């Protein structure tokens, strides 16, 4: 695997955290039958994974800033660079013993994502990209977005809001308009992997609202470097700031976006 020193550091951090999470994941499966339940255990696993990643990344680049799901934002001595980290994307899947979750690490430079890693330990799939160098899977397989050009053949991914999230009505409207026009919609519960799958051509596109920067930062670069397009749900908005994203291959992006924006 050939990459920059920063990328190699990111991959090392992801693999280190993965060892801890895989061990904890096996334990979660045992905890399913307990009366107390695994919730507290999983939150500890999440925090420990972020601690390991932070220790690795900040140990290697102590002047960089930091934005993590568990520990929040910390400015660095170098104001132009920061790590953006989700130590466990797909926590609900993890909690229920479902092997579809990931570690997401992005490096931002002057407001732009320049390096990205999304690692799925359960399947041992390491998606990675650097600006201008393409997107890759594991050691040497270059990945590209799907070549499908017809909405009727396309499979899309999204996240359906849970609990009392205010975006549920808009998402239901999206589904009502989109599903008759496409081959299917999947909701797999890990935004970083949804974007990685778009980059790898497994999904033709993905959209979701009310996300956090650590959910999507790495995945956005993967899609772009795999030849895809990304944009905000509301035209003109900042994707990372507003947390609403559309991603697809170039042939379908405009049609896909038109369906989602026509409200």
Characterization of the model:
The protein is of the alpha+beta class. The chain has two domains: 5-143, Fructose-1,6-Bisphosphatase, Chain A, domain 1; 151-261, D-Maltodextrin-Binding Protein, domain 2 (3-Layer(aba) Sandwich), CATH 3.40.190. The protein has eight helices and 13 strands. An eight-stranded mixed β-sheet has the order 2-1-3-4-5-6-7-8, sandwiched between helices. A five-stranded mixed β-sheet has the order 10-9-11-13-12, with helices on both faces. α1 runs antiparallel to α2 (39-60) and α5 (191-199) packs parallel to α6 (213-225). It is globular, with a radius of gyration of 18 Å. The N and C termini lie far apart (45 Å).
Give a brief description.
This protein has 263 residues and is of the alpha+beta class.
Terminal residue distance: 45 Å
Counted beta strands: 13
CATH domain class name of the largest domain: Alpha Beta
Biggest sheet, in brief? Answer: 8 strands, mixed
Low-pLDDT residue intervals, each spanning 5 or more residues:
none
SSE blueprint and pairings:
Blueprint: H1 5-31, H2 39-60, E1 65-68, E2 72-74, E3 81-89, H3 91-95, E4 102-109, E5 112-120, E6 125-130, E7 135-137, E8 141-143, E9 155-158, H4 168-178, E10 184-186, H5 191-199, E11 205-208, H6 213-225, E12 228-232, H7 239-242, E13 245-249, H8 250-261
Parallel strand pairs: 1-3, 9-10, 9-11
Antiparallel strand pairs: 1-2, 3-4, 4-5, 5-6, 6-7, 7-8, 11-13, 12-13
């Amino acid at each position: 695997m050939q990459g920059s020193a920063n990328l190699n550091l990111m991959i090392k951090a992801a693999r280190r955290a993965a060892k801890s999470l895989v061990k904890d994941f096996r334990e979660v499966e045992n905890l399913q039958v307990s009366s107390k339940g695994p919730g507290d255990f999983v939150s500890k696993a999440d925090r420990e994974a972020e601690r390991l990643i932070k220790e690795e990344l900040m140990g290697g680049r102590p002047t960089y800033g930091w934005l993590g799901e568990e520990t929040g934002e910390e400015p660095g001595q170098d104001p132009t660079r920061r790590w953006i980290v989700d130590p466990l994307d797909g926590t609900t899947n993890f909690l229920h013993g479902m092997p579809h979750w990931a570690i997401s690490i992005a490096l931002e430079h002057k407001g732009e994502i320049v390096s990205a890693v999304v690692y799925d330990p359960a399947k041992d799939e390491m998606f990675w990209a650097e600006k201008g160098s393409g997107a890759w899977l594991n050691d040497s397989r270059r990945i590209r977005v799907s070549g499908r050009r017809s909405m009727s053949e396309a499979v899309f991914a999204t996240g359906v809001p849970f609990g009392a999230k205010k975006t549920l009505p808009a998402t239901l409207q999206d589904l009502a308009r989109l599903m008759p026009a496409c081959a299917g919609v999947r909701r797999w519960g890990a935004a970083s992997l949804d974007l990685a799958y778009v980059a790898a051509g497994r999904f033709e596109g993905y959209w979701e609202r009310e996300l956090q920067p650590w959910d999507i930062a790495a995945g956005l670069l993967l899609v772009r470097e795999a030849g895809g397009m990304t944009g905000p749900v509301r035209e003109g908005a900042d994707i990372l700031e507003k947390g609403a994203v559309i991603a697809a291959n170039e042939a379908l992006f405009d049609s896909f976006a038109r369906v989602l924006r026509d409200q």
